[in-house]
Structures are given as C-alpha cells and as structure tokens.
Structure prediction request, 455 residues.
Amino acid sequence: MTPRFSLRLRLFLLVLCPLILMTLPLGVWRYMVAQETAEELFDRGLLSAALAISRDVTVSDGDALLPSTRDLIRDASGGEVFYHATGPGGSYVTGYAYPPTTTAPSNDGINGQQFYEATYRSEPVRVMRITERVSIQGMSGDTIITVWQRIADRTAFANQLAIRAAILIGALLISVALVVWFGVRRGLAPLIELEDAIDRRSPDDLSQIKRHVPIEAQGIVKTLNRLFEQLEYNINAHQVFISDAAHQLRNPAAAVQSMAQALRDAPSEADRDIRLRELEAAARESVRISEQLLSLDRLQHGAQGREHETFDLCALTREVCTDMAQDVLGRGIDFGLEAPDQAIEITADRFYVSEALKNLIDNAMKHGGAALSSIQVDVASGDGTASITVRDDGVGLTPAQSDQAFGRFSQVAPSDGSGLGLAIVASVAEQHGGEVSIDPVEAGASLSLKLPLAT
Prediction:
C-alpha cells in the first residue's frame, strides 16, 4: 500500500529545497566577495598610511609623525598597522626598527609601490612598500616607507562580513519558509473544504459536486462528477435490468410450473407425452432466456475485462451455421451460407461474436412469421471492416424500426421471443467498436453486423 503523504509538506519541500540549494553557492560566493573586499580595503588602508608617513617625513624633515597620521595608523581598517621609514642613503627615520623583508615581492611595483606577503614575528603579514624621491635637510635621495599588517586581522574582518551575510541569508530563508508554509496551507484550504464536503455526503448521494474550487482542482471535480454520473447510470441500469429480468423470467417459470401440474394430471399416456414435450420446450425457453440475460449483463458490465483474440470470421461463421443447421432445416426452412475461401481475420471476443451470430439467426426464425421459407448468411469484408449479413424472406424489418428492434425486452410484433436477441447483438457490436443495422430491402429482413478487421 502506498504510504500517505502531506500535499502541503510536499509543496513546501519542493519550494524550499531549491532555495536551500541556491543559498549554498550564494554563501560561497559571498565569502569570496568578503575576502576580496577585505583585501581591497586593507590594501587601501596600508597605502593611505604609507602616503601619510611619506608626507610627514618630507614636511618635518625626518622628525616625528603628525598626530593625525598616528590616529590614521592606529585606526586603519580596524587592525593594527606597523611601519618603518628610511631616508636618503638608507638612514633610519621612524617606526619599527626591523621591517619584514622578502626576496621575491609579489610584483615589480607600480609608481614605486609594492605589495607582498611575508612573516613578521612568526606571523604572516601583508606588506606595502613605497619608494619616493625626497629632500631632507639638504640631502636628496629615495625614502622608503614600509607598512604592514597581520593577515589574521584581514581574515577576521572577512569572516565578520561573511557571518553577517550568512545571518541575513538565513533570516531571509526562514522568513520565506514561514511564508511558504502558511501560504501553502492557506492555498490548500479549498481542497480540505472539498474533502470535508465529500466526506459528509450520504452513500446514496451521487449528485454532482457544485462547490467553487481553484482552477487546478476543477479537473478533479469534473472527473468525480463524471464518475458519479456513470455510477448512477450503472446503478439505475442494474435496477432496471433486474426488474425487467424478473418480469421476463416470471412467465416461463409460471409456464413450467403449470405444465408440470398438467403433466401430473394427464388423463392418458398420449396426453402425458404431449404435455411432456411442451414442458421440455418451456424449460428450454426458460434456460435460453436466462442465458440471454446473463450474456447481456456480462456484455454491458463485464466484457471490458475479457481478452480478445484474432481469429477467422469465416471459420467461426461456418461452425455456428453447422451447429444451427439441424434446428433451421428441421423447421422446413432453407438455410444457406456464402463466405469467401480466404480468411477474414478480426480481433474480438470469439464467444460473444458467436453469440451475436446465433441471435441473428434465431431472430430470423422467431420473427420471420408463417411466410418464412429461407435464411441466408453472407460473410464479406471491405473498407477495413468485416460484415455478417443474415437475410430472410419473412415478415420483414425496416431501418425505421431500429430503435424498437434493438431495444431490450422490446419487439416489433408479438412473438414467442424474449426481446433480448438483437439487444445482445447491438451490445456485442458496441463492445467491439462495430455496428449493427437493418438494411433496406424490398421484402423480408436483412440485418448486418460489422466489426473492424484485425490490424
């Protein structure tokens, strides 16, 4: 059994999971941006500090730095900045005594500026060195300003930016999750109301659902209404069928009972034999009506589950005509069959096609009247269909009488038939995608059953 699941939870996960997956690369990208931002900000801070120191060295002729420059160095980018300045000839001017050095700077310098990474007091640092030509106390030459900062301070700043971004993304994700959860719940409210309304229905209530539902659920409601309509139709059809069947079986059953009583009270052996034959005929008719009722019920409500097979319609027609020939010829009726030598194959239920043909022949015998003298069966094919035509020279039928002739328990003229034979033929044709019709003829009756050829 398939486990139950919440549609709301499924929609929630379908919306939220892609958002979560999107936040993963977004978080990585945001961390990389924070790293680049920190690098750029700190490098600019080092450059500003170096330019300020170079200016002060020039202006003060190598004396101490201005207070504003010291404040800039102390507050640069939120991390401690170290510096070292030398004057012309490499003389020490100010700052820390021993700056970090490297044998391979990261670049050759742009406008006398160089950035590289080194180690200072066992810690990795980012170094910026600037070289400018100055004149101090009458001496001209190059002054070198070196400033550096711990890389750990930069990393901490970048992590702080990334954490703030992560908190913002997480808050947005939680907000979206709450909105989606309650939005889906609110959006599914009409379906829950529809479920409650159907659950409160009586089992006998098969009327159409007329509640207003969202567009997405209208297909479900239409399908349910169509199902209710089919169920109501089938239930009514079964009730009518049971009522008609009880009515049709009542007369043969009463006749059998009456003839059995008459057989018991027969005054002589001759009368007993006559009444015994009448009883056998009534019992046969009762069995025939029962079989027709069962066949009609199976065709209308159970034929969909039967498997079809491909077979030769000509061969089947010969078998049926051979089985019925004795009964037809025994009544003094000419019986003929015309079928091509080559096979005409159809894909159908062999049993029901056979029953349809038997009912066509039986209908001709029972409703042909006293003038009936011949029955002709023809098998042919053309235009993608196979046809069986049963013609007789009896009372006759016209196409205008089709509705009455093919209706259940109805007859064009009173006879000893049950009114089910042609209804069974019509049901067989419908179940196999074919048709049955009354052909216009000058005399007698001609009925044709057409079925699709095998593909």
